[in-house]
Amino acid sequence: MSIYLKRALRNKQFMLLFTLGLLMIIAVVFAQNFAPHDPYKQYYDHILENSSAMFPLGTDQLGRCVLSRLMYAGKTSLLTVFAIVIVSALIGSFIGIASAMSGGIVDSIIMRFLDMLMAFPGMVLIIALVAVFGVGVFNIFIALIVTSWVSYARFTRSVSMSIIGSDFIHEARLGGANNFKIMYAYILPNILPQMLVLMTQDLGDKLLTLASLSLLGLGAQPPQPEWGFMLSEGKPFMQTCYWLLIYPGLIILINVVIFNLLGDSLRDILDPKYEN
Fold first, then answer.
1. Per-residue pLDDT for the chain (276 aa), expressed as one digit of tens each?
2. 225 within 8 A of 69, measured Cβ to Cβ
3. Would you give the DSSP letter of residue 55?
């Protein structure tokens, strides 16, 4: 762990991206302490007003502070995305490792089931699930988990298959270790670095998916602020009030770039051959 920490501290790109990501998370988690206004309060005398001292990023069609709504929307977007990735990784990792350790007919059945799920276009399947469950952030959360755990299961199964045949696994079995101990004590520590990289890069993808669904009206519902839904609300005013689209779109772009580049930096740091 100390080796990885030293590598991280020497990697300027990682430290910059990590700091930016951490500041972003702090800003949205503690939005109630930093937001200049109540995101739901309507100032009827300031409807569709451009940037000013009172409203740094302007107001929307109901006179609500865009900056405050962006900060509160980040809590909805980022926390939902983090929860989706973590839950999907836990479910997928358990199934993937269990499949690799079981082998035989059990492994074949699980893999054919995963192939069947991956045969459906992801977005189409998500929209179909939302149509069944109904619109809303929680239903999007469930739908994305249902479609996301598959990639983690295939990844962990593939990596676990290469580890299970190693000499130290055979020695552990000879020493009396059961399957559960082999899973958490030998396999998980070996796949965790690669899983962290995959999860970090997946954050950006899930953020885009959540924003896209909210843009279509399937995610957050009024008056709940969410970055994708703020884009949807600003569409009718795109020619006259650009800030209603520019700022939510820009904040989504920044977060996606941060997560993707952070994943690349993390991959370099966790690489045994890394030198810096």
1. 567 777 777 888 889 999 999 999 998 889 989 999 999 999 999 999 999 999 999 999 999 999 999 999 998 899 999 999 999 999 999 999 888 888 789 888 988 888 888 887 878 888 888 888 888 888 899 999 988 999 999 999 888 888 887 777 778 777 777 777 788 778 888 888 889 989 998 999 999 999 988 888 888 888 888 999 999 888 888 888 989 999 999 999 999 999 999 988 888 888 766 555
2. yes
3. S
- Residue 9, burial from CB neighbour count under 10 angstroms (0-12, 13-18, 19+): exposed
Amino acid at 218: L
Tokens 């569709």 sit on residue: 48
**Are 259 and 73 contacting, i.e. CB atoms less than 8 angstroms apart?**
no
Q: How far is CA 50 from CA 31, 61, 71, 163, 244, in A?
A: 22, 11, 18, 58, 10
DSSP of 165-224 = TSHHHHHHHHTT--HHHHIIIIIHHHHHHHHHHHHHHHHHHHHHHHHHHHHTTSS--TTS
